[in-house]
Design brief:
The complex is a heterotrimer of chains A (about 140), B (about 425) and C (about 375).
Chain A: H1 2-30, E1 42-47, E2 55-61, E3 64-70, E4 76-80, E5 91-93, E6 98-101, E7 106-108, E8 114-116, E9 126-131, E10 134-140
Antiparallel strand pairs in A: 1-10, 2-3, 3-4, 5-6, 6-7, 7-8, 9-10
Chain B: H1 3-27, H2 30-35, H3 44-48, H4 53-56, H5 61-65, H6 74-77, H7 91-99, H8 102-105, H9 116-122, H10 124-130, H11 139-143, H12 160-171, H13 174-177, H14 186-191, H15 194-201, H16 210-214, H17 227-232, H18 236-243, H19 246-254, H20 258-263, H21 293-324, H22 330-348, H23 355-414
Chain C: H1 3-19, H2 22-30, E1 32-35, H3 43-63, H4 73-82, H5 87-114, H6 123-145, H7 150-164, H8 170-178, H9 185-217, E2 231-234, H10 235-260, H11 286-294, E3 298-299, E4 302-303, H12 304-320, H13 322-325, H14 327-330, H15 336-358
Antiparallel strand pairs in C: 1-2, 3-4
Helix pairs in contact in C: 3-5, 4-5, 5-6, 5-10, 6-7, 6-9, 7-8, 11-15
Classes of the chains: A alpha+beta (about 140), B mainly alpha (about 425), C mainly alpha (about 375).
């Protein structure tokens, strides 16, 4: 009797334990997650008014740096800031209104095209949209 | 066959025969056909000329050497205009007779330069040549002679990744260089440099080779005061920093060439913190005494740089481990890459010697690295959590299997 | 003993009155399973069912977060793997079980083939089983594209290119499968529809018939064994116990695989990138892939690939209909040809799969 009861309890106990250890992950999975900004898909690069004309800002896009430029004429442009030569971070040179990579003097125009120096390819252009007060940058163009 | 048919064939074949006879006449080049039958160095020019860029533009042997290629008989072919083989002395002038003539070159390539000969005469090679030194390099020594290629073709002897070999044919030959008192280790040193690594291994055609620093036709080693300007072409930030540093005035007064004093000229290797005070390749000792306060400060900086580098490497490998175990790491990777950028900037600031600025950058790097460290620690904790969960679940599965076994055995025994 | 079992009895009576399941319970109690030297192969059928159930559960959970659009598919997988609690586990279980399931299906199929379990009256069990093989291969193929990463994009391209090579119907078949001429957003929606709607319905239909037939005919006996002479063990509790232990062990192994080798997210697919070198489909298609790579360019003037594909399709057709042309089997006699064919196919699949991984650079 005692043995039988023990075995029954053991069976129920281990069955319950197994069931719970399988159910627990499923339960946690189903609970709503705070949906962190899916950075690869969409990033709020800046707000209107944050940048002065003829200036730029580096922001994170996925796992890479990107550059948001506010031109003198008042247009916003966004490019991947990874230099196509040896992956240094490209910056904005307001005195010449070009993008300059400090490592080997690679220079790009406002279309991302190489105008001097060693970079072999133009910079990757990013899509940009102004939503209300926010400047949103999302996946690559094309 | 019908009679009229045979006559028709005959009549048609006449003009065809005549046309091919005339065509053969015009395409005949007796220089090539004769020389191809000879051997060794007499046949080589004929064999290779079809690949020459001049041949592609419709020029032939006669364009330089004269003679009449339409004549089969050797006396008739080598007529009054025939110039034969050129002496070394005559070659630069021969090439310049076309290549320095803007009106003539415009017919072939309107944008080609026509000042090569002029520049050549300003170079060491050209000056030696003017003084009658026939061992000095002339056009054909670098460009080749009967199979000259465009400089931007990989088979050309002056294409970036062939150029150093072309120069070192003479410049690495001790017997040739001895009379001039020139060293012969430049090519070997260059091959060990970071520039050669970029050019030959990474196939980065923007990396400098001999001509980028020494010039092409007007080749002269840059003088002591001008080396820095040459480096500045591609490394402007370092040059700018140096100009604003206390070293600039000191170097100018002591007549020490800027970049070269610390980085060398041909064997330029990847810079490291070990080049600083107290390091394995201590360069500061060349001028500073080891007990000066500046020296001590630089030595402390070196230690900080090394520690940052070690931290970056260790975080990078931990990050890879964690990523392999399935934890999402894109934010950490970004921050680490930013930290690495800051580190390179901090190290680069040594050219400016502004200690406060360098310390500030070092701190920014360190802060970023701490951020990454926290994320990696959290991820490593997550991996331990997963393994713990696995142990618990597997234990329960095992216990359940055991319980089933016992239950069934018990039921069987009951019966 | 007292109130506990009375309460239990009341509950049982309640459900019996409403579901009238006592007859089924009786059948279950009486159900037996033969036990002989080759009876271990019987476990593979149940294993396939177990893994299918796992796929349905984990697949259903993944449906909560997955988005079948080329803008969001890869990102949603990254979200599941990185942000959702235990998302990494649910997704890794789904991917690992899928591969184990296909392996189990192949073992189950070859064991039943060599044991001639398709003999009358079990022909339709075999036919529905073969359909289930095709359905699950389609599950694997369609599911592989859904994460929209580099590997899946190019593996799908390679696979659909092969499909397009089928003579006569190849072109239209490829267009139908891709939802266009190239892999695009339409392909992803289509594969998603295959994977979560069409194929599950088809699987349930054929699986229902397959399982029903197994219940009414029982497990088949190998040739030569007589019903009277063979030992039968009761399904409950003996076979159920061994099967449960096996299922629990497989579950533990899957857990181990997921914690130590979680499935990777990969790089997002870029349709404009050049095909990376050494691309190949998932392991269970590699034998087909390598066959088509190694076949000579032209045989008797016709493209070698088309002939090979035709041959494979014909082989599948004959495989499907084996119960109807194995005359000796119908008469309960051993047909050595079946053994030869079966072993040849197994060796061919193993060798060609190995070749794909040992000699990846081989080109025609």
């Amino acid at each position: 009797m005692k043995r039988r009861r023990f075995i029954d309890l053991f069976l129920i106990g281990s069955g319950l334990g197994t069931f719970l250890s399988l159910l627990y992950p499923v339960f946690r999975y189903l609970m709503p997650t705070p949906r962190k900004e899916e950075v690869v898909e969409q990033v709020v690069a800046a707000r209107i008014g944050e940048l002065a004309p003829n200036s730029a800002k580096i922001f994170r896009f996925g796992a890479e740096p990107a550059l948001l430029i506010f031109t003198r004429e008042g247009n916003y442009l966004a490019y991947s800031a990874v230099c196509t030569h040896l992956t240094c971070t490209v910056g904005y040179d307001s005195s010449t209104e070009t993008l300059l990579c400090p490592c080997h003097n690679g220079r790009f125009n406002l279309n991302g095209e190489v105008i001097s120096g060693p970079p072999p390819r133009p910079l990757r252009r990013l899509n940009l949209e102004i939503r209300g007060e926010e400047i949103v940058v999302w996946r690559e163009r094309g | 066959m019908k009679e009229w048919f045979k006559k028709l064939i005959f009549l048609l074949s006449l003009p065809i025969f005549l046309a091919s006879f005339l065509y053969a006449q015009s395409a005949r080049n007796s220089c090539l056909s004769c020389h191809l039958e000879l051997e060794g160095s007499l046949a080589a020019p004929a064999q290779s000329f079809s690949r020459d860029i001049h041949a592609q533009f419709g020029l032939s042997c006669a364009s330089c050497h004269g003679g009449n290629p339409l004549k089969e008989e050797i006396e008739e072919a080598k007529d009054r205009s025939f110039k034969g083989k050129f002496s070394r002395q005559a070659i630069p002038q021969l090439c310049a007779s076309c290549h320095a003539d803007a009106n003539y070159m415009r017919n072939y390539n309107p944008s080609i330069r026509v000042d090569q000969f002029e520049l050549y005469l300003t170079s060491r090679h050209g000056q030696a040549y003017k003084n009658g030194d026939l061992k000095a390099a002339i056009c054909t020594d670098c460009h080749g002679v009967h199979q000259i290629q465009r400089a931007n073709m990989p088979q050309s002897s002056i294409f970036p990744w062939n150029l150093a070999s072309t120069c070192s044919r003479c410049h690495s030959d001790p017997d040739l260089m001895k009379p001039y008192g020139l060293a012969t280790n430049q090519a070997e040193d260059y091959r060990a440099s970071v520039h050669a690594q970029a050019l030959y291994e990474k196939k980065d055609l923007s990396a400098p080779t001999c001509n980028d620093c020494h010039g092409n036709h007007g080749a002269l080693p840059p003088g002591v005061s001008s080396v820095a300007n040459v480096c500045r072409q591609c490394h402007p930030s370092q040059a700018e920093l140096f100009t604003q540093s206390p070293h600039k005035k000191a170097f100018d007064e002591a007549r020490i060439s800027e970049c070269e004093a610390c980085h060398g000229n041909h064997r330029i290797t990847s810079p490291s913190a070990e080049m600083l005070a107290g390091g394995k390749q201590d360069l500061c000792l060349q001028c500073h005494s080891s007990d000066s306060s500046l020296y001590q400060q630089a030595s402390k900086l070196r230690e900080k740089f090394n520690s940052l580098q070690n931290q970056i490497e260790s975080l990078s490998s931990r990050l890879n481990q964690v990523k392999k175990k399935g934890v999402e790491m894109s934010e950490a990777r970004y921050e680490l890459q930013q930290a690495h950028s800051f580190f390179l900037e901090a190290r680069n600031l040594i050219h400016g010697l502004s200690f406060p600025e360098i310390e500030e950058k070092i701190k920014a790097t360190s802060d970023k690295l701490n951020l990454v460290d926290n994320v990696v620690l959290a991820a490593e904790k997550e991996i331990r959590y997963r393994k713990t969960g696995l142990v618990i679940a597997t234990t329960f599965l095992f216990l359940l299997a055991l319980a089933l076994l016992l239950k069934v055995r018990e039921r069987r025994n009951r019966v | 003993m007292a109130s506990g079992s009375k309460g239990k009895n009341k509950l049982l009576v309640y459900f019996e009155d409403r579901f009238k399941w006592s007859k089924i319970a009786e059948l279950a109690r009486k159900k037996t399973v033969p036990k002989h030297s080759l009876s271990y192969w019987q476990y593979f059928g149940g294993l396939c069912l177990f893994l299918f159930i796992i796929q349905v559960i984990t697949g259903g959970l993944l449906l909560l977060h997955y988005v079948p659009s080329i803008d969001r598919a890869h990102e949603s997988i990254q979200f599941i793997m990185g942000q959702v609690k235990f998302g990494w586990l649910i997704r890794s279980v789904h991917s690992w079980s899928a591969n184990i399931l296909i392996g189990a299906i192949f073992v189950h199929m070859f064991s039943t083939f060599l044991l001639r379990a398709y003999r009358p009256p079990r022909e339709i069990t075999w036919v529905t089983g073969t359909f289930l093989l095709f359905i699950f291969l389609a599950f694997g193929f369609s599911g592989y594209l859904l994460p929209w990463n580099e590997l899946s994009f190019f593996a799908t391209r390679v696979g659909t290119d092969l499909l397009g090579q089928i003579p006569i119907i190849g072109g239209s078949l490829k267009t139908f499968v891709l939802g266009g001429r190239e892999i695009s957003g339409a392909t992803l929606s289509r594969f998603y529809w295959f994977h979560v709607a069409l194929l599950p319905l088809a699987a349930l239909f054929f699986l229902g018939i397959h399982l029903y037939l197994i219940q009414i005919h029982g497990i088949s006996l190998p040739l030569g064994l007589k019903q009277k002479k063979v030992r039968e063990v009761p399904f409950f509790p003996d076979f159920f116990l061994s099967e449960s232990v096996l299922w629990l062990t497989v579950l533990a192994i899957i857990g181990l695989l997921c914690v130590f080798f979680p499935w990777e997210t990969g790089e997002k697919a870029n349709p404009f990138a050049p095909t990376p070198a050494g691309i190949r489909p998932e392991w269970y298609f590699t034998f087909l892939f390598t066959t088509l790579k190694l076949v000579p360019g032209h045989i008797l003037g016709i493209e070698g690939e088309k002939i090979a594909l035709l041959f494979i399709l014909l082989a599948c057709f004959f495989w499907l209909l084996v119960p109807y042309w194995d005359r000796k089997g119908q008469k309960e006699q051993k047909n050595p040809l079946i053994t030869v064919i079966g072993l040849t196919v197994i060796i061919y699949i193993l060798v060609f799969t190995l070749i794909t991984y040992l000699f990846p650079g081989y080109k025609k």
